Amino acid sequence: MDFWRDTLGAPTKIVAPMVDASELPWRLLSRKYGAQLCYTPMLHSAIFAKDSKYRNEALASCDSDKPLIVQFCGNDPKIMLEAALLAQDHCSAIDINLGCPQAIAKRGHYGAFLQDEWPLLHEMVSLLSSKVKVPITCKVRRFESVEKTVSYAKMLVSAGCKMLTVHGRTREQKGPLTGLADWGYVKAVREAVDIPVISNGNIQCMEDVDRCLEETGAVAVMTAEGNLYNPALFMRQNPPAWVPALEYLDLVDQYPCPMSYIRGHLFKLFHHVLSIPSNNNLRIQLGAANNMGEFRRIINVIKDMYEPFHEGESLWTDTTEANCENLVLPPWLCQPYVRACPEEHLKKMEENSNKQESKRHYEDSEGNQISRKRMKKLRRIGRRPQKLESLQSERSLLKCAKCVNPLGSKCVYQLCKKCCKNKCYIENLDCAGHRVLVKTRREMAKFHASKKNSELIDVS
């Protein structure tokens, strides 16, 4: 508990590590609105250890961005250690991501898809704990049973974990199947271990924070989506979305980040406004925006549209047409995005499946069943048969000089691509039309080889 109290300052309001979303400008905005501890986005340990540019961008910080925890993902203890040693002077702790449930984590074999490999995780945590000068923490998801979740937490603590974040969902609870996090698992872990435990999941407003701390006994709560839709959550405020949006852009001017990050944040801040059918054009414009001027212009357009309602100069009554009759607050205010429950999603999927089974079947002129896409193509051909015949007759004359394949229209040697590549390889040629550069690359290889040999001779 000394680490949580003395090093971190006993934070209770924490912003989660979020890929492409918890970058420096957003962390600074979150701290302004009451966040007491922030994490970097999840960083790939192997890339971090090898790529200096990736490393410098990932470690971007400033004096007011403290305390900060750097989070890594990976499955190789030695590579994780290498990355942690490079980051240890820039943070208060190193966190190991054992909770990411996304498909990319499954493909890369990290995050929540390591939670069944306890010997590997024990080795990883113990190695980092013994070699890295800052504390090692972990972020995990629960198992189906409380008993296994508690045993999992105890194993990580025995390996050297100094603080544990427990997400009250399983790794299968994601996307439309997210559902509610079960705080009972967090409470069970908190009662079973003697290190600080943070609760993650179901934090959409400050009332959730208070209730979670009381029910779980956790030292703090962590929020991700709740923070993205309302960065002022920890201050019990629901500001008009253009206020944090413009403040965020001011921070981006000072600490630049990729345009995709900015676009993602603005889509979430203005989610409820952009969901209004009449604002679809603004949604399209935001999706196409690729410079700060465009982002500011769109924010100010929204501000000019809704500020009269916010200031009371006009009366907002258009809840039905705006498709926001279920919102507690007007759509221009920062507020949570509440997903439909998994049962509703499964029911909708079943209904769609039944509709697909009753879909109209299409047949060609010979009575063979075909797809709707094929049927549309046949209809287009039927409307312009002369054009098809002219194209077919033109193409039929353009054959490769060595085989029956169609001729590459820009090929220097009047060949298809396969025959062209073979000819260039055998005869040491280039073909600009097919972008086959055998001769050029061979000459470059000879040049570099001779240059290397001359350097070796000079050294000797």
Automatic annotation (TrEMBL):
Residue ranges of domain DUS-like FMN-binding in the record: 15-248
PROSITE patterns for this protein: UPF0034
EC number from the UniProt entry: 1.3.1.88
Cofactor: FMN
Reaction catalyzed: 5,6-dihydrouridine(16) in tRNA + NADP(+) = uridine(16) in tRNA + NADPH + H(+); 5,6-dihydrouridine(17) in tRNA + NADP(+) = uridine(17) in tRNA + NADPH + H(+); 5,6-dihydrouridine(16) in tRNA + NAD(+) = uridine(16) in tRNA + NADH + H(+); 5,6-dihydrouridine(17) in tRNA + NAD(+) = uridine(17) in tRNA + NADH + H(+)
Top-level EC class: oxidoreductase
Key words, A-Z: Flavoprotein, FMN, NAD, NADP, Oxidoreductase, tRNA processing
Composition skew (Basic residues), residue ranges: 371-385
SUPFAM superfamilies associated with the record: FMN-linked oxidoreductases
Single GO molecular function: flavin adenine dinucleotide binding
Pfam family, one: Dus
Location of the region described as Disordered in the Swiss-Prot/TrEMBL record: 349-385
Segments of skewed composition (Basic and acidic residues): 349-364
PANTHER family found in the cross-reference section: TRNA-DIHYDROURIDINE SYNTHASE, TRNA-DIHYDROURIDINE(16_17) SYNTHASE [NAD(P)(+)]-LIKE
Family, similarity comment: Belongs to the Dus family. Dus1 subfamily.
Protein name: tRNA-dihydrouridine(16/17) synthase [NAD(P)(+)]
